[in-house]
Structure formats: C-alpha cells, structure tokens
Amino acid sequence: MPKNSKVVKRELDDEVIESVKDLLSNEDSADDAFKKSELIVDVQEEKDTDVEEGSEVEDERPAWNSKLQYILAQVGFSVGLGNVWRFPYLCQKNGGGAYLLPYLILLLVIGIPLFFLELSVGQRIRRGSIGVWNYISPKLGGIGFASCVVCFFVALYYNVIIGWSLFYFSQSFQQPLPWDQCPLVKNASHTFVEPECEKSSATTYYWYREALNISSSISESGGLNWKMTVCLLAAWVVVCLAMIKGIQSSGKIMYFSSLFPYVVLICFLIRALLLNGSIDGIRHMFTPELEMMLEPKVWREAAAQVFFALGLGFGGVIAFSSYNKRDNNCHFDAVLVSFINFFTSILATLVVFAVLGFKANVINEKCIAENLEMIIKLVKMGNISQDIIPHHINFSAVTAEDYHLVYDIIQKVKEEEFPALHLNSCQIEDELNKAVQGTGLAFIAFTEAMTHFPASPFWSVMFFLMLVNLGLGSMFGTIEGIITPIVDTFKVRKEVLTVICCLLAFCIGLMFVQRSGNYFVTMFDDYSATLPLLIVVILENIAVSFVYGIDKFMEDLKDMLGFAPNRYYYYMWKYISPLMLLSLLIASIVNMGLSPPGYNAWTEDKASEEFQSYPTWGMVVCISLMVLAILPVPIVFIIRRCNLIDDSSGNLASVTYKRGRVLKEPLNLEGDDASLIHGKTSSQMSSPNFGKNIYRKQSGSPTLDTAPNGRYGIGYLMADMPDMPESDL
C-alpha cells in the first residue's frame, strides 16, 4: 500500500447506493461501524486512469513510446497522397511560385491555429473526438460522431487508392514494364497495335483497360474486377494488422511508413536533376504569375488545400494527441508538423516537375524528329524552297533552337498555306502546361515518365511503394479517428472493434472495385468529405471560442503548457479563423452549385474521357453522403436540448459502492464550471488530488487516518468533486 494512502473505516454492504447528502448526514453517528471494514483511497499523483464500470483493474491510457514516434504519426497522417498529386497541380494551375504566398498566409491564419486547437483539446481531455466535444459542450457532442462518419466514408475509398498502388507495385517487377508499350493484337491475317491504345498512350491504356478494366458509365457496373478486389483485401489486411493493437502496433510501423517517402522523394529528386529537361520543368513550375494572386479562386483553392492537408476535422489529430502527456508542448508540435507538411509539398512539387520536365523533353524531341521528317519531305517535293532554310542548319543534327528557327521562317514565308502543312511548334512549355492531378498524375503521367528512366523497374517499385506508405500513414490516422472515440465512449475491446470496422469497410468497399468503381471513388471524393468537414471544423472553432469560452480556454492552455500562448491565437480563434472558414464554406457551396455534378467517363471508341452527369440515383447518393455525414450534429443537439435521454445521474450526486469501488455514471459537464484543466482555487475544490482509486480493503488494516479535506469519511471527499471530468477519475 502506498505511503500516502488514507485509511478510513466504515461498514458497507457489497452493493449500496446512497446519496452524498445521506452519507454526510450519517457521518457522525457511524463511528461504530468504522471498525468492521475499511476503504482505501489511493492517491496516484500524475497518473491518469480510466474508470470502467464493472472492471476490477483500472488500465492506464496507452501512451507514445517517444516524442519522435508521436511526431512521425502526426506527420504520417497529415502528409498524404494530396501532397504528391494535388499540391503540384494547384501550384502550376494558380500561378506557379506566386501560389506559395497565399498558401503560406492561409497556413498561418487557418492551418496552424486550428491544428493547435485540435492538438490541445485532445491532449488535455485525453479522449477521442466524441469524448472531447461531449466534454466541451454536450449539445455539440454530435461533432465527434460526424467526424467518425466522415472518417469512415474517406477510409472506404482511400484504401482503394492504396489497393491500386499495390497492384502497380506488384506489376513493377518486370523488364520492360507492362505499360511501356502498346499491346499487339493478332488475327488470322496480320498483327496490329491495339486501337484503343494507339489513340491514347500505353500508360493511359494500361490504367483504364488493364488495371481498372473500366466501364463506359457509372450505371454500368460490369461486375467485380478480381485483381483489384484482391489488392483491396490486401490493403485492408495490412491496415487491420497495423491498427489492431492501437498505437502500440501502428506506432512502430510509423518509423518506416512516415520516413520512407522522404527517402524516395530525395532519391527521385537527385535522379531527376541528372536528366535532361528537369531544370525546364522546375523553372516552369516556379515562374510566378503575380496577377493570379488577385483572383479569389486561387485563395479559395489554397485555403481548401491547407485545410485538408493537415487533416483538420477528421478526428485523427485529436486521437493521436490524446495519447500524449498533459504537459507536452503541443504548440511546438502544431508549428513543427504544419511546416513539415508545407516543405514536404514543396519537395514533392520539385520532384514531380523535375520528372515531368524530363518527360516533356523526351516527348519534345520525338515531336521535333517527326516534324523534321515532314519538312525534309516538303523540301524534296518542292513545297518549301531550300533557299529559305538557313545554311548553318544541318538536318542530320538539329537542335531544338534550330528547329524553332526553321519553323518560324516557314510560318512567315508560307503564311497562307501554313495551316495545310500540319507542322507542330514542339514547345516544351505546351507539354508542361498539360496540368494533371490525382490518379492522372500518379498512374499515367508520372508512370509514363518512369518508363524513360534507366533501370525503370527499380524506380517504379520505389515510387509505388512510396505511394503505399503515404496512403497507409493517412489511413492509420483516419482509422484511429474512428476507433479511439468509439473505444473511449462505449468501452469496447479495441481489437474486436478494429477487425469489425475493417471487415465492414472491405465489404462496403467492393463497390469501388467494380468496373465502374473509379466513378464511385470520384463521387465519394467530391461529396463525402469536403462540405461536412468544413462544417465540423467551423463548429469546433465555435464550440471552443464561444460556447466554452476563449478566455477560459487560453487560461487552460497556460496551465497545461506552463506558458501563455501568444495573443495571436486568441484573435485567430475568436475572429479571423471563423470568418475565413465561413467564407470558405460559402465559396465551396457556390462553386459546387455552379459546377454541374458529374464525372469523367472513359469512352473506349474515342479512347478519351468525356464528362457525363450523374443519373438521378447518383444525385441522391451524392446528397445522402453529405447529409449522413453532418446528420449527427443536429440529432445530438435535439436529443440533449429536449432531454430525450435521461442523464440526470451524470452529476455524481449519487455514487455506487460495488466491491469497494466507486462506479460513476456519465458526467453532465455542460455548465460553465467545466474547465479543461480545472484551474480552481483551493477554496473551490477541497480535494485537489486527481486520479484516486477507491476500493475495499479487508479488515485488519492500519488505523484511521485523516482525509485530505480534514474530515473523516469518503462522503465529503466525493461531495466536493462534482465537476471532475471523466478523464480525471
């Protein structure tokens, strides 16, 4: 028994429920009964325990093995596929280097403050998203449930992308790569190139026909694609095994899954810089178009990218930080992880455009060679005079500059006849301006570029293994955003819940591995997360700043961190961030309304994509995804507002003594007295020591000792702790 244990004697039945007032009123007359049995109050300072009804042992909340493991987990969650295939596209589309300034400003205004907010509430309350927002405001407890729903929707299709990456990874151990050349078709008389491939390209054909075997519309299911079904099953098995023990298992994997992508990106950058044309790609990427900064669309897309890049609203950030010590400097973590995310996006952009610059250079050389042959034919036929060709140009060794000079001369001389010659200018910028993102970048453009690399299978293996690791890092955080809140709230076994969650997600995810599955991925990506997450984060900001109180929250942070955060955060949380988020929400709704809901369907005859609108049932699914994701917020609000569920026992007005333990009911913490760090004065709280184990001790224990509040008996001790949070009991 610890030295600081307080021993008090009182006779209690095995199961007796009495109010605190009754205990106090009978305290003086119960001295005789103290000799028959004893209660031990074990004060465990600086030790956080979870009291679970009916359990004999209080298990401590899991904790990170080291600060590095925690940082890698947050980095792995925030740095995902979007950094590689979304940020470079936005940077190119919105003014090149000029786009970085709006992005950086919005990172400071929206990103870091809101990231810091989620880290701090998760770390202090030490619960998942459901428990955190129930604690801060029970009426807004639906925020946590909405986060879980969005996480589940995103996990459904995000793991499909990991499955695609696994498929390409498995196919990369070949020389030449299977997407290097168009396949040949043989018939009775002769052999010819596959027409669909000839009209597009080898990598495009392989993606749509060999990998996805895509149907022509979302209404045409086409049955399951067995190759992708196996890959999806493998992806869910990996996620399940990694998450089954919580952070004890996933935390160790983070060392590889979070660091390996950086090794690959640096290797790709070094290799690409040694290839012809890479500098052209980087120069094109970062050439600023300052006039683009004045367009509202640029700022809207930058804000959306900041928002989603950090994983705000998913609950993963809160879940990971809930396993920290309460005195951890989460402000430092917020700034560090945010800037690591930003510089990772810059690194990925350098790599992507260095590689695309090399690809553009290869394609440009082919273009020049083809058009040069046409010019030579036209000269021999007499359509173009040999005299207009500069004498220093040797057709056997023509540089890009020489070709452009000849092209400009022919264009001036043959001004009227020039369109009929069908000559191409072969500008490398034209190829670089073909903006691609998402799967088009990863599985088509980048894949095509790697076929021109020396030792292309090695680089293909490295690239797709990097994509798998980037995806898994984000998946771990997404699944943690589902598992942790449910385990904290409903006290189910984490292993069982993880298996059930992964199995259910795989079964539902079979819709994404149909031949039409790619169209459902697009649907979920466009409608299941964007608006619901924005609403969730706006409500988070409102809950902390206006419902809980920004002044009280700042005091909580001061007590928790040991220093007062800069007043900058006060003004961001109270004024700037809510306004910016509301503006972003309105802009997103307007943009969604102006953009016709639809998808790009692959047309086999034309070997190209064409836009198609969703059918009526597809529109119903789109709307249902948004409604279902945000529905928990009004449902929980109405239930709590109208008292449809009785939680009157949640104020510790009564306690149950069972086998010598105090078993509590859920707390009602809606009042203004709730405080994240409970910074009350000694006069307000008689028992400042949190985390007490109360259990029965057998007779014959040491003699009576005085309770911390100067009274004998546990009744008064419990009466003075009505506002104690669940996390502190």
From TrEMBL:
CC per GO annotation: plasma membrane
Record's keyword annotation contains NAD: no
Record has Metal-binding as a keyword: yes
Positions of transmembrane segments: 70-88, 100-121, 142-169, 226-247, 259-282, 302-323, 335-356, 458-483, 495-513, 533-550, 571-594, 614-639
GO BP terms in the entry: L-leucine transport; neurotransmitter transport
Keywords, sorted A to Z: Amino-acid transport, Glycoprotein, Ion transport, Membrane, Metal-binding, Neurotransmitter transport, Phosphoprotein, Sodium, Sodium transport, Symport, Transmembrane, Transmembrane helix, Transport
Localisation per UniProt entry: Membrane
Family membership noted in the UniProt record: Belongs to the sodium:neurotransmitter symporter (SNF) (TC 2.A.22) family. SLC6A15 subfamily.
NCBIfam families (UniProt xref): Na_transp
Official protein name in the record: Transporter
